[in-house]
Every structure is written in structure tokens, then in C-alpha cells.
Design brief:
Blueprint: H1 3-7, H2 18-39, E1 44-49, H3 53-68, E2 72-73, E3 82-87, H4 92-111, E4 116-121, H5 127-136, E5 142-144, H6 152-160, E6 166-168, E7 192-196, E8 198-199, H7 210-214, E9 218-219, H8 222-234, E10 239-243, H9 260-268, E11 275-279, H10 288-296, E12 303-305, H11 313-318, H12 325-338, E13 343-350, H13 357-370, E14 374-379, H14 397-421, E15 426-434, E16 441-446, E17 451-455, E18 464-472, E19 476-481
Bound molecules: 5'-deoxyadenosine (5AD) and iron/sulfur cluster.
Length: about 475
Amino acid sequence: MLNEELQIEQKRATSVPREEIMRQWELMGQNRELLVRRMGYTPRAWVRTFGCQGNVADSEKIMGMLLDMGCVQATSEKEADIIIYNTCAIRENAEIRLLSTVGELKRLKAANPNIMIGLCGCMMQQEGIVMQIRRSYPFVELIFGTHVLHTLPKLINRLLSGERRVMDCYEGEGRENLIPEGLPIKRAQGNQASLQIMNGCDNFCSYCIVPYVRGREVSRKPDEIIREAKEILAMGYKEILLLGQNVNSYGKGLDEKITFAQLLERIEALKGDFRIRFMTSHPKDCTKELIDVIARSKKICHSIHLPVQSGSDRVLGQMNRHYTREHYLSLINYAREKMPDVTFTTDIIVGFPGETYKEFQQTIALCKQVRYQAMFTFIYSPRPGTRAATMPDPIDYKEKTKWLNELLAVQHQISEEDNKAAQGKLMRVLVEDKVQNKEGWMYGICENGMVVKFMAEGIQKGRFVDVKITKGMRSEYEGVLL
Ligand code: 5AD
Ligand code: SF4
């Protein structure tokens, strides 16, 4: 066991103290004037998000605060006065791509020295990366980690008060992972709104950097979540996406005893016609109680993202996943018994250190058995500081790419077959928008997450409609509106 794992203790979930949030509101007001003074006009803000839904939700908070500081949303990066990149550390190529993209911002800064460039997110929680940025990208004035996201008004205020460069990144175990409540959020347009229910991760899967950069798991208080869910519904959103690294362990450390299944029931009980989705579920904490709640529910989508990562028990053990293939399949079978229409999606890592081709074949066999609706596949990427990064890894990247392609071919065939088998079925669809270049056609999202296109002149976005599937292709359906 790593030290970090031994140090995990059940702690009380805590929010950022109210006074600190009030202070940020005050600074947002002050920054309004200071920003206009620096730019000479109303500043335009641009936030670019890399990585997962968690980062998307954080970016909505960043934009919310920037708008409150008097900015307007820029329509492109080139015309922006404040540019913030919210970064992802999950795989090495994401980091390499990010660094080269940041390099390109140098030109914008040279053309207009008044613009403000900032970097935040998971990459900024790694000392090595931060050092590199400080050395090689002097035009980046603002660097901050995930734990201090809510202090953006203070950080910008320091810049506006004359500091040349402001940096506040999480280092080591010294700082707590507190949840900020009551800050503005600029939500995405469309039908779906994200709602963060927890932060951090205590699982320490051996390949994963997240517990190191996002810190210990903390759950938001259920009342705060319900308050935000009501707010989202009052704004007219039709789908709530509950977010957490491991939503199934929601409630750990809270004063109020509550499980994720119970939280779902409380959200379900809110008035209105809306859908609930959630991610990510960890199979080790997925309970029958949870599956029963989903099965009984009229609002929770019968579509579950349940990352398996590997179909081999030995590899799962090395990954520190705390479940077996048999346990995983028993969850799938139980859910299918309770909900014959349930669909699953998954994440799979190909080429974990020491994985043999024979073990990889066990993953292929599991995928054939489960028949996922869709999967997110990744070639293993060593992350410095994680346990897996120290394991012997004899299979080269080229060979792993071949395995990945084999897996993708299997999944493509399954998707084609299952989507074809959906022909004739009736689906409840949430209408999203017009189909580009197809006069009179709209598209919507089925409960299983699939896109369906159908002829529907003048139908309103955000409505639930019934569509009969007439054609199932690899990644979308066509249908007729009933
Ligand atoms: N290499 C490859 N894939 C990874 N993931 C997490 N860490 C790594 C890594 N080091 C994948 C897992 C996880 C998803 C979000 O990213 O499949 O579920
Ligand atoms: Fe990473 Fe595992 Fe935590 Fe997911 S559950 S964020 S894969 S450590």
C-alpha cells in the first residue's frame, strides 16, 4: 500500500467557509472596474476545457465568476482578452498536446500585451508541470490548481493590483479539498446541466493520477445538491447529469447518513418532467439497492456507465480495482433482470503493464458477453507517481495499438448489430436541435444516449417525444415521430 492510501481517513465533508465566499463576491465587484481600466473596454473571456465532465463543470464555475467580474463571453479565442485553459492530466498525450497548444498563445500575447492568459485544472496540480510552465511560458500570468478554483477573483485581483505573475497550486497533502458553495455558474446551453455531487477520489486505481491531483473524496451536502437541482430545473433544463469520480460512494464522511441511491430518490422526487444521468460509477461500490432505485425510477435513465477497465481478474487486481470479473458480471445480470431495457457503457484500458495477449482476450470476451452500447478505450499511459508507472511494461505501443484496434472492431460489430436490432422499437426522445443541412429534420437523445434523427418540422427543443426507430446505424438512429 502507498502512504497516501494509508492516510485516507473518513473525514467530514466541509464547504469553503462562508466568509471566504463572501470575500470572493466582494473581489468580483472590485475586479469589474479594474479589468475595464486595464483593457480599456468590456473584457471578453474565453475558457477552454480539456478532459472530463468534471472539468467541464469547473469551467462553468470559472466562466460564471468571469461574467460576474463584468466580462462577456468571447466568440473566439483570438478575440478574447482573458483566456483560461482548464487542463487534464489523465494521459500523457493530453498533456503533450496541451503544452503545444499553450505555446501557440504566445503570438496572441505578443499582439496584445494586455490580454491575460491563465492555466488551471489537473495538470496544474503537478509540481513538475508547473515548474515547466513557469520556466518556458513566461506569458502565462495566472496558474492555479483545482483546490483554489473558487479564489479566482482573488487571484485576478492580485494580477490587477500589479503582481506580474500569480500562482496558487496545490502541493502535497497540506491543503484540504473543500467544496465551494454559492458561487455563480455559467451553464452550457441545451437540455443538459451538470451538477457536481462530490469531489476528489480515494480509490487509487494503480494507473490513475486523479487521486493525486484532485485530492481526497468529499461529498456535497444533500441540501445543497437539491437546492442546485431545483435551480437547474427552474432554468428549464430537462436533464441533470450528476458528477463525481465515484458517485457510488457518495455520502462518505457526511454528518447526514445518506447513500447515492437515497440521493437519487430525493432528486427523483423533485417536480417536473426531466431525466437524471450520473457518472462515474465504480463497480466495487455499485449496490443492488442502487440498481433497484434505477429500475423503479421514471426519471433516472436506464443507461449506466460502469467502467470495467479489464476482463482479467489478475489485471483487475494489479489495477487495484477491488472487484472481480464475476462480481462485475453479476451486477450486469442483476440490472438486466430488473430492467430488460438497460444499456451499459464502459471504459477500457488496453495494455496495462504486464497484461498479456491472453488476458486482453478476456477483456474481448467480456465485451462480447456484456454487449456495451458504447465504450471509451484508452491505451495505458504511465503517469509519474502512480504505482503502475513502476511496473514492468514489456509490450510496445505498436502492439497495444493492434490490440486496441481488435477491440474496436468487436465493439463496432456489436454496435451495428444491436442498433439494427433496435429497428421498430419505440424510444422516448429529448429533442435537442435542428439537423444541419437537412431541411425539416431534428435530432434528439434517446434514454440510452444514442442520437436519433427524425423529420419534425417546427417541434420545440427541450420537449420529450416518442420516436419509432426505422434505421439503426453504428453510431446513430433514424426514426419517425409518433
Ligand atoms: N492510462 C490510460 N487510461 C487511463 N484512464 C485513467 N488513467 C489512465 C491511464 N493512466 C482511463 C480509465 C478511466 C478513464 C476516465 O480514463 O479508463 O476510467
Ligand atoms: Fe481514477 Fe480509479 Fe478514482 Fe476513477 S476511481 S478517478 S479510475 S482512481
